[in-house]
């Protein structure tokens, strides 16, 4: 079976990028080991701190972040990193050709219940010398040179794209290597499965409620077919399912916090997942535009996410742009 780095070398990925990817896989193996040790590693549970998003940090969040940051910054090809767990960017070698944005442990509320979590990453080119600090990262997702995630599940998988399709690698625990197990991943165009946190129903805009109402109405409703729902509460795992068998995943905006309508982060959740999904033939949208074309304003920016099977994303967007939505009521905001 083919190993990760030799597989990418055949794609003529440049040596600097190859080295960054190699560093990421070293981190992934270490995080995977700690996670699989579970309670035995003594790293479960929460810290007393909150991250920049105001969320409670898990010990493993902190550990995974430290590990990725330290090891990536030792790589001379890494100019800087941006992480969900860091307020600002952390700079490395001035001559580094790449920037890495990551969510060290996505779905961290799943840690304590021994459920799925993952690391999501996005690699951008370092812009010219006239740009410095956080501004270096403020590039649209179309600039990504590579993106992917590591899913720490029953097996540890690295899912990855450099813009030449999506490949899946599985960590062989015996030899300690990621081996190619799936190539040319294609998301089916149509689906009967969707993923959304239904408990937020009352906070969504009326058009989104209308869309979900029609999914729930099944074969007796206007969609004339039954839909199944799945929600793992870890984007990394929900998107993995979409890549494996299709589906629609969405975390729409809602009206709970007027200045913060969205939950998911653009630079290290939306963009890398959008690149993977588009490379696999799916669509990834904010509800207003293609995720990959959003011009970021800051590194922790949040964004609406609707991604997955192309036909279903298109249908969902048609509902959202229907300004005459018949289900709107006077109390809807
Ligand atoms: P963390 O990054 O704090 O682990 O949150 C995970 C996440 O951002 C994303 O992976 C999930 O899709 C979403 O949150 C789950 O949110 P709910 O709490 O609404 O289920």
TrEMBL record:
It catalyses: beta-D-fructose 1,6-bisphosphate + H2O = beta-D-fructose 6-phosphate + phosphate. It is found in: Cytoplasm. It comes from the Bacteria. This is Fructose-1,6-bisphosphatase class 1. Mg(2+) 1 binds at residues 84, 103, 105. Its EC number is 3.1.3.11. Pathway: Carbohydrate biosynthesis. PANTHER family: FRUCTOSE-1,6-BISPHOSPHATASE-RELATED, SEDOHEPTULOSE-1,7-BISPHOSPHATASE, CHLOROPLASTIC.
